[in-house]
Specification:
This protein is of the alpha/beta class. The chain has eight helices and twelve strands.
Length: 227
């Protein structure tokens, strides 16, 4: 599975760099950082961000205002707000601005990590989720892949389900039997030939050279996605 990008927007350099350092210990994440609301908003708009950690007390703007701006501009990823004020009214204001969660400082990293993972898991089940597969942005709800130039690759329902399951498996190969069961269910009329036909058609759509697959590869009696 491709690393999820976490953007940390906080003017406290020690806290921000400490979070970057701790998150970098986990292969499932890559990090980006900003020390002002303006930089954070710009980065969230211009880059693919899987989750945003936004401080309330930023030097140039209230973090909640920055969150409102992002939500108005269709930023769909989860947002966790950090605050030095642990009051109910503060939490309500943050959530009303469009944040998904509120964490009061000082906090334990393990607690923040658990919340990050929980929000990413929830978001990945929603209509708004997007994933990176090689040079493509994968939008399962739209049955669509977009390449770097913005060109669209339309997918069938089964092709979307195959990519989704292989993406969630990470770099672990998935056997043909497991993939058949997960995508087609207990349908006795479906054989591995059906799956192989779908894989063939999928490679025709997404590989630069379908005869020498680089993204959707065959391995250990099954298939896996190479990020």
């Amino acid at each position: 599975m491709a690393a999820r990008k976490i953007l940390i927007c906080d003017d406290d350099t020690d806290l921000r760099e400490g979070l970057v350092e701790q998150l970098s210990l986990y292969e499932e994440f890559e990090t980006a950082q900003a020390d002002t609301a303006a930089k954070g908003v710009q980065m969230a708009r211009n880059d693919h961000v899987d989750l945003l950690i936004m401080d309330v007390g930023l030097p140039d703007m209230d973090g909640r205002e920055a969150v409102k701006i992002l939500r108005k501009n269709a930023f769909k990823a989860p947002i966790i707000m950090l605050t030095g004020h642990d009051t109910d009214s503060d939490t309500v204001l943050g959530l009303e601005a469009g944040a998904n969660d509120y964490v009061a400082k000082p906090f334990k990293f393990a607690v923040l990590l658990a919340r990050i993972r929980a929000h990413l898991r929830q978001h990945e089940q929603t209509e708004d989720a997007t994933f990176t597969i090689g040079r493509y942005t994968f939008r399962p709800s739209a049955k669509l892949l977009l390449d770097e130039k913005g060109s669209k690759v339309r997918l069938t329902e089964k092709e979307t389900a195959i990519l989704k399951y292989l993406y969630r498996a990470g770099e672990r190969p998935v056997s043909r039997d497991v993939l058949l069961h997960e995508v087609w269910g207990y349908n006795s009329g479906v054989t591995t030939h059906t799956l192989e036909t779908h894989i063939y058609r999928l490679r025709q759509k997404i590989e630069r050279d379908p005869s020498s697959a680089e993204l959707l590869v065959t391995e250990s009696g099954g298939y896996k996605l190479v990020p």
